[in-house]
Amino acid sequence: MTEAYGEAWYWDKRYAKESTASSSFDWYQKYESLAPLLHLYVPPTTRIRILVVGAGNSAFSEGMSKDGYGDIVSIDISSVVIERMRKKYSDSPHLKYIEMDVRDMKAFEAGSFDAVIDKGTLDSLLCGHNSKLNAGRMLEEVERVLKKEGVYILITYGIPAYRLCLLRSHSWAIKLHVIDKVHPGESSKAESWELTRPVPLNSDGSLKDGIHLENMDVHYIYVCTKLSC
């Protein structure tokens, strides 16, 4: 079924099975865990316009709103979940939910957003049919809707050897961060690597000598800043 991750019908069917409209699920990490990193690159303010792609029924956008971000647009390919989230946040006009395919965001003008947050959407497309083509279309659209010097923050399980190769085909300056995975029932533990400290990279995007991430149980966070020229 992972091959259908890029299809609306798959997600409509999945969300329709959920029993309550109030249920929520966050892929990989919750907002509270990632907030220090977001504050570093996208300080909370009502003037910042943020796009959350593949939002699903996540509470991530709500967490950003409570933290001071004032203009948050969340999109998802599933009409089922978008309708549910619109009803859930009907009293929060600054939380906007739009049914949209991340590979075709022509409803948004170029340079519309200061930041794009992606928590698992690129990963989903890379699991599906025509993965390279669909991933390329998504990244082209993300780059287009970002303002100059805007940031695309990708939270993923994808290791640098694969994700950096894909990301470096676009006009971005890239920084890499990591955050420990959170497993059900697991108590807090010491950080494998400080979240707000970038992992050193060489000019070609490879890891500096002596940096070994492959044995760390982490999610990778690629902060891609759109170049001004």
Report the end-to-end length measured between terminal Cα atoms.
41 Å
Level of helix content? 25-40%
Largest sheet: 7 strands, mixed
Give the percentage of residues in beta strands: 15-25%
Shape by Cα distribution? globular
Report the uncertain regions.
none
Residue-averaged pLDDT = 89
Instruction: State the helix count.
Output: 7
Order of SSEs, N→C? HHEHEHEEHHEHEE
Assembly type: single chain
Q: Give a count of the beta strands, DSSP E runs of length 2 or more.
A: 7
- Class from secondary-structure proportions: alpha/beta
Rg measurement, Å: 17 Å
Sequence of strands across the biggest β-sheet: 3-2-1-4-5-7-6
Characterization of this structure:
By secondary structure, the protein is α/β, with parallel strands linked by helices. The protein has helices spanning 8-16, 31-41, 60-66, 79-88, 121-127, 131-145, 160-167; strands at 49-53, 71-76, 95-99, 113-119, 146-156, 172-180, 218-226. α4 (79-88) links the parallel β2 (71-76) and β3. α5 runs antiparallel to α6 (131-145). It is globular. The termini are far apart. The mean pLDDT is 89.
